[in-house]
Amino acid sequence: MTRRLPPLNSLKAFEAAARLESVSAAADELCVTHGAVSRHVQQLEHWLGHLLFVRHNRKVVLTPQGRAYLSEISAAFDRIALATSEQMQARRQQILRVNAPTTFSLRWLLPRLSSFQLANPAIEIRLTTSNEPIGKIREEVDMWIRGGPQDVEGYAAREFLSEVRLPVCSPRVLKAEPLRNPRDLARHTLLHAATYPTMWSEWLAASGNTRLKPRNTLTLEHFYLTLQAALDGLGVAMGPVALVADDVAEGRLVFPFDGPVLPPWRYFTYVAKHRSGDDAIRVFQAWLSAASRFDVEQGR
Q: InterPro entries of this UniProt entry (predicted)?
């Protein structure tokens, strides 16, 4: 059924004049002439078929019908104003909920996130960390960052970062006990992450040192703890190049060997297919790719 609505300008003129009890005050508020307000109110009265207010000197006095109509019109305008404000606020500040692995978040994403915020102040990133499978945690998530590729039903995957893995340690470790070749690791402590238990054995096999026995081993619960232990000089860790690039660039960590390198580990964004076209998601995906390219260009 088609709505029967009077002219909007007539409603605005009546609501302002009735609320302010003055045609002149309504004209000032609406930035129109006194005559324009009067004509709009008369048009509304003609449309309704009865008077809405009468004029006494410079004031207007509502008729019973006018009082009842003002109550409804004012409430409707309030609801329109609130809905409009919410829409504008949503446009000004879009929220993007991202879930990413802890080590990736601490070592790569957070150090770079300020550049995204400066360039995109209308998008608020709400970051949570987890290694849980995609879609398996309770909180609402707009974008998942995980290794891959993974074929997850209902989700579109997009690669943005690829990295290789090499041994890494503090310069203090090399000063105390040089590492000229992989066999020298027998005089060092190897740092293991419980979440990646085979990384060292894979690298030692690739270097032809399957039977190497280190002086000591230290296993930590999370990979980011292993990298922190390397920074603190507790031993040699397996370092994903992209996640330790800033520390290497600033001299806090070094790669004692050029190779071999373990096969690339690839990071992807995973987004529900029906959300792939969302503006905030597309902007953040483009920024992730650009940040990764910048690292490559800088030799990181």
A: LysR-type_TF_proteobact-type, LysR_HTH_N, LysR_subst-bd, WH-like_DNA-bd_sf, WH_DNA-bd_sf
